[in-house]
Amino acid sequence: MLLIPRKSHWLALIILLLPILAQAWQPDRSYRLTILHTNDQHGHFWPNAQGEYGLAAQKTLMDTQRYDAQSKGSGVLILSGGDVNTGVPESDLLDAEPDIRGMNLVGYDAMALGNHEFDKPLSVLQKQQKWAKFPFLSANIYAKSSGQRLFKPWAVFTRMGLKVAVIGLTTPDTLRIANPANMATIEIRDPVTETEKAVAELRASVKPDVIILLTHMGHYDDGQHGSNAPGDVELARSLPPGTVNLIVGGHSHDAVCMEKENVSVKNYQPGQPCQPDRQNGVWIVQAKEWGKFVGRGDFTFRNGELALDSYQLIPVNLKHKIKNADGSESWLTWQQEIPPNPAMMKLLTPFQKRAEAKLDVPVGSSDGVFVGERDKVRFEQTNLGQLILRAQMAATKADFAVMSGGGIRTSLPQGAISWRDVLQVQPFSNQVVSVTLTGNQLLTYLATVANIKTDAGGFAQFANISLVADGSDVSEVKINGEPLQQDKTYRMATNSFNATGGDGYPRIDNLAGYTNTGLRDADVLRGWVSQHSPLKVSDYAPGEGIVHLTAEQKQQRDSAPEKPRKRSYPKTVLAWILPHAVEN
Q1: pLDDT digit string, tens, across residues 553-584
Q2: Which among 95, 247, 318, 483 is least buried, having the fewest CB atoms inside 10 angstroms?
């Protein structure tokens, strides 16, 4: 007779066996794990004009690195730190389908959801999830209506006997910097709290040996995140020691290679050694942007501890310019050139050809470069900011214009300018809008936007306005060279993203004087370039009209003794007090 234990007996048996089931690894045995990673691809599935990066070369490199690691007995995971969307017109026009299908062929195991995954409606993201053969992860994004997680929070992999959990996290800044219309139903919770919650759930269920946080939160040296939401450094410091083993990050577009404790290498060059950051016992890695590098970390797991054996950032056909003896210039790869994978080329070429026909259209020309690089438009006024805003002022007949520097994605080249070039500068399809404000309203508005710190997407680009910003307020405001009058009205041009509160700007779309032109920002810029070509960069120099005081300068200004004012009296008063003074 077969004896079948009661349900309660089964449960008791399972509880007794849990400690045995939990420890899949054997004591005193070494397990090897290799992490290959990229982040912030932003539509760069195809190589650039110099033949740099692109998924075809990345596929070749990933295969080589994976086979090398596996030949040494290492289990391999391929991870992406998110932001597959937005940046290259060929990809934007096709909702990043070539990128995602290319990532399938590379063999990605998981991707964190980045803020730019929300540039388009959620229906597009849902379509992308169906294309992907790997999960999009985020443990801290919830639906407002249900209070339930909106996406898969983690994925668990078994590699060479190790159970590895990968938890996704998305920056809370997404609520501020993504299209507000697409975020109305979404809640993004605190990453630290959600990490602790996810780890507790995992340890109570699957009991992983290694826990990796796959984040899109940014790396900021020593946790100095400025106006941005806290990133990976703060996250690692805030977690109890031993909570997680590794953070694979994205969002800040950094090559995370440390010069010394809490100081990263500036202007990292391909081929240089790379030591990842380590905070509170947690390694932190990030591989620049656009698939320019593949990060490779080789780890050894032994008796419950994960140790880093080696780490490198491998360039994907990155090149530098040299001058030849005859005065001509050539591009040379930093390391041995990586051939494109034929299967990837076969997959991607039709996507590239389909988009090229729409994009290779001449628009105009320029006698120099209009600067739109990330390390410029988020730190200072640029000529490209002037160009864009003057176009928007003309379209709205505005007195002045403002926009967040993060809305400018790249530079306009010297020479011929194509429709592709324009769309790369402004890929978000925002609309050009305007609003009428009193001088008093404008002062309140400027006190917020002009004081957004550098190195943030919200750092403001201005046109036809000058001011002094001191960190909390503004002074010496002039519109078109004339001092601001508080009772006068002014017309301001901007884009629909900033108007609806994007990048932390005050909302103005609910004001009576608000007008949406219905014109896409890229179309407005295209029209201006066409009408004013050949463009002269000297005509768009930003000047010195926007001044940001340091804390020290503000203190010196506030503590300076007030200059004595020379008294003046109307002549009628003088005639009454001193009759002869008026005659003299």
Answers
A1: 888 888 877 655 555 545 544 444 455 544 44
A2: 483
End-to-end Cα, the chain, rounded Å: 131
Question: What are 49-93's pLDDT values in tens digits?
Answer: 899 999 999 999 999 999 999 999 999 999 999 999 998 999 999
Alpha-helix runs per DSSP H in 140-294: 174-177, 191-204, 232-238
Q: Which tokens sit at 116?
A: 């730019």
**Beta-strand runs (E) in 337-430:** 362-366, 400-404, 415-418
Reported as a pLDDT band with limits 50, 70 and 90, residue 18 is very low
Query: Measuring CA to CA, which residue among 156, 191, 154 is closest to residue 171?
Result: 191
The three-class DSSP label of residue 133 is coil
Q: Would you say 429 and 390 are in contact if contact means Cβ atoms under 8 Å apart?
A: no
Q: What is the residue-wise DSSP string for 49-103? A: TT----HHHHHHHHHHHHHHHHHTTEEEEEEE-S--SSS-HHHHTTTTHHHHHHH
Longest pairwise C-alpha distance within the chain: 132
Q: How confident is the model at residue 260 (pLDDT cuts 50, 70, 90)?
A: very high
> Which neighbouring-strand residues pair with 564?
none
pLDDT at 371 > cutoff 90: yes
Residues in the chain: 584
Task: Give the span between the Cα atoms of 382 and 379, in whole angstroms.
Answer: 9
Does the global pTM surpass 0.85?
Answer: no
Angle 19-23-26 from CA coordinates, rounded to 5° = 135
Tokens of 305: 């501890």
Q: Which two tokens stand for residue 229?
A: 């939401």
Q: What does the alpha-carbon distance between residue 63 and residue 81 come to, in Å, rounded to a whole number?
A: 19
